[in-house]
Amino acid sequence: MKPGMYLKILITFCVLAFLNNISCLPEDPADECTQNRNVVSKSGELLVNGGAYWQITVAEQTGSVLVADKNCHAKMQLEFWFKNKELAKTNVKPPLLIVFFGGGGFFDPGSVSVYSKQISDGSYLWTAYCDQAAKNASENPTDFGISVGWDPNQLLSLEDVKLDGLIDYKTYKKP
What is the pLDDT of residue 122? Predict the structure, then answer.
């Protein structure tokens, strides 16, 4: 290759690296979405013989009042694991169908991260995480939530599951 081509590739790489670093900068503390945040949480179980549906919503935790700002990201997290200690020590994902929602719709499953980690007792803790705003919602304030049911594609392998949900959201303030 010619030296000019190497220079173009090097400049392109440097520009892309610079732009990537800018997008990874921490949030500006003066940013309005970092102020007036609240967290709601809920624990529960999804049981084979009962309790086949579980949900946490901001409105459910605030007396059915919509209080979340649709224009700021809600950081929603669900941790889940098998109740059976032996099964929990395998890296088998519990057969759950998890839906993150807000603003009257649900978020694309492609925007959800699901991963596992082994904890000190040797069992696996699974986490599903979604960080989204509901900017297309018709009204502000809105609601955010997580709903969980059994995955219909895996109904033959059901075992009881423990759940811990958490939603970190910005409270809507009228302008």
Answer: 95
